[in-house]
Amino acid sequence: MTMSSISIRGRYAPSPTGTLHLGNLRTALLAWLFARSAGGAFILRMEDLDGPRVRPGAAEQILADLRWLGLEWDEGPDVDGPYGPYTQSAREAIYAAALAHLRRYDAIYPCYCTRAELRALHTDENVASAPHGLSTSSPPARYCSCRVLTSAERLACETSGRRPAWRFRAPPEPFTFTDRIMGTVTQRPSDAGDFIVWRSDGLFAYHLAVVVDDALMGVSQIVRGADLLPFVAAQRALFLALGYPPPTEYAHVPLATDATGVRMAKRDASAGVAALRAHGVTPAQTLGALAASCGLWPANTPATPADLLVAFDPMRIIREPSPIVLLEG
């Protein structure tokens, strides 16, 4: 299968920082359904750049959990493909080249502010917080003076021993797009602030890696959590600054909660596949619960991936956070 032979290329890109919970699995299912219903390819990419947070064995467990559900992929860490490697830690030379391109065209700038200094510049109303689970070296720098430092001022910061993060110069021009779930959205890239592309601790940042990977892997369809919806225009601006065509289709999945309305998190070990299997829950019961929670399937009814693909209708997906209730018996 080549990029030229297929119009839609979707992906699921988990971080191996812990066990996938039911909300993660619901996003994976929806990404798979969107891609497969369009006759497209489905890519699995492991986003393991944040080494200190990666848990040993988590990547292998993610692959096993997705296969337990019956979801398969065309390209990924364990099946390879023409646009690999599909593990971010093996792509650092690619990100370094992208960073050099941005520096060459003055699309990024060094920021020497500490986290405390940045917090002092902002109020709760004008800080765009980082997406859940994403690690950044400091908050957005929408009003940070580092954007306009002179060469002498930068040298003074360097001499004092401060290690900079590098931030993207987010442009102000508005961008309007239609999200397959959330409807028509208008954003300015600058709404997200001047986000980090290179962290002060020496790691490539999430936004740079995800944009470069999606571009070079030919991803045209982005299906992911609604917490990343505010970053569409900002990431699109980064695509363009790097000379890449941006994705053409977006679908942002409502966040999943437990029965009490609390957002699911990886730290909740009881929400993973291992706990389901230990209690005798089957893949079909799990898939039925995931699909029912977002309006795609009758409650308390098992389903296979093939069943859900036949019945898939994106217009039925609910837009609000919703609980995932496991099927009875």
Describe this structure in words.
The protein has 329 residues and is of the alpha/beta class. It folds into 2 domains: 156 residues, 3-Layer(aba) Sandwich (Rossmann fold), CATH 3.40.50.620; 117 residues, Glutamyl-tRNA Synthetase, domain 3 (Alpha-Beta Complex). The longest helix is centred in the N-terminal third of the chain and has 16 residues. The radius of gyration is 20 Å and the shape is elongated. The N terminus is likely disordered.
Outline of the structure:
Helices cover 31% and strands 13% of the residues. It is built from ten helices and eleven strands.
Write the layout of secondary structure elements.
Blueprint: E1 9-12, H1 22-37, E2 41-44, H2 58-69, H3 92-104, E3 108-111, H4 115-121, H5 151-159, E4 165-168, E5 175-179, E6 183-187, E7 196-198, H6 206-216, E8 221-225, H7 232-241, E9 249-253, E10 256-257, H8 273-278, H9 283-293, H10 305-311, E11 322-323
Parallel strand pairs: 1-2, 8-9, 10-11
Antiparallel strand pairs: 3-4, 4-7, 5-6
List keywords for this structure.
single chain; 329 residues; alpha/beta; Rossmann fold; Glutamyl-tRNA Synthetase, domain 3; 2 domains; three-stranded antiparallel beta sheet; two-stranded parallel sheet; 10 helices; 11 strands; 13% strand; elongated; disordered N terminus
